[in-house]
Amino acid sequence: MTATQKIDRKAYELAKSYLPSKIKGVTREIIEKYQNEPDSAPRLSSKKGLYRYLLYSAQEMAMKPKVIGNAIGGLDRLALILDDFDPDYVLRTYGDEWEAVLVQIEETLNPVGKIRKTPRSIWPRYCQTIISAAKFIEQFDSANDFFNWVNFFNSDDRSRASLPMLLDHEIKGFGFALGCDFLMKLGYSNFCKPDVHLRDIFTGLELCQPKVDDYNLFKTIIRVAKNANASPYATDKIFWLIGSGYFYDDPSIGSGGHIGSQKNEFIKFARSELYGSNES
């Protein structure tokens, strides 16, 4: 076993045991529950379902759920202007004109709050996502065709990271990390999300280079998972729980499931264990 393999495995083991040793009510069984692949992954059997799920995923970044979904009384109300999330209808009706989508949102859905209309503002960007996501879904003959395409990338470690890169380029506003999150929530446990919590912990433990980009952080998480004999999904979850401090399925832990981020304390502890007692 190489030095990198040993450090990766130990970092994972330290992460898995850390919260049960520090936080009241957190047990190893609870940690493993979050690491298990979700049973609730959506079973999407139509292109409409895929399109709707893409648009839900696309609003998950930063403040978008508050600005978009909450402003119109729930994202499902977009069905009124998208013909029940029909990507073919969207392209026939709006073409490339995201501005026309925004006009319909304003006239039909009456969103709460001020809508900024500069191209880089949230609503215009989301309307561009609506158009580009429709174009993306319309490339496939069926939902099954889409999943066969995903499975092609998922079946090969060498090509897997290419898939969220493609989603990033095909769907405006999606991004590499959001593409990973979308695939994870569809039940693909070979994917992980290179988010800020994992970035901070992995760079803090020198598991990857400083200022690592999403692609290389993704590859690092995959490497750590492989060396720890765990799935990327399970590896993502354990470090995410430390970073976010949020047990969303266990409101009895902490304050409604929130224990506060533990990543700074964990990094200090784990560095000492990984690299020696002279670490500060």
Layout of helices and strands:
Layout: H1 3-22, H2 28-35, H3 47-58, H4 64-69, H5 87-94, H6 98-109, H7 122-137, H8 143-154, H9 162-170, H10 176-185, H11 196-204, H12 214-227, H13 232-244, H14 263-275
Helix pairs in contact: 1-12, 1-13, 1-14, 2-13, 3-7, 3-10, 5-7, 6-7, 9-10, 11-13, 11-14, 12-13
Task: Please outline what is shown here.
With 280 residues, the chain is an all-alpha fold.
Structural class: mainly alpha
What's the helix count?
A: 14
Domain count: the total is 2
Order of helices and strands: HHHHHHHHHHHHHH
- Please, what is the average pLDDT? 92
Global shape:
globular
Can you characterise this structure?
With 280 residues, the chain is mostly helical. The protein has two domains: 3-37 and 192-275, no CATH class; 43-188, Endonuclease III, domain 1. The protein is 58% helix and 0% strand. The chain has 14 helices and no strands. Helix 3 packs across helix 10 and helix 12 (214-227) packs across helix 13. The longest helix has 20 residues, at 3-22. The chain is globular, with a radius of gyration of 21 Å. The two termini are 27 Å apart. The model has no long low-confidence stretch (mean pLDDT 92).
Which features does this protein show?
280 residues, mainly alpha, 14 helices, globular
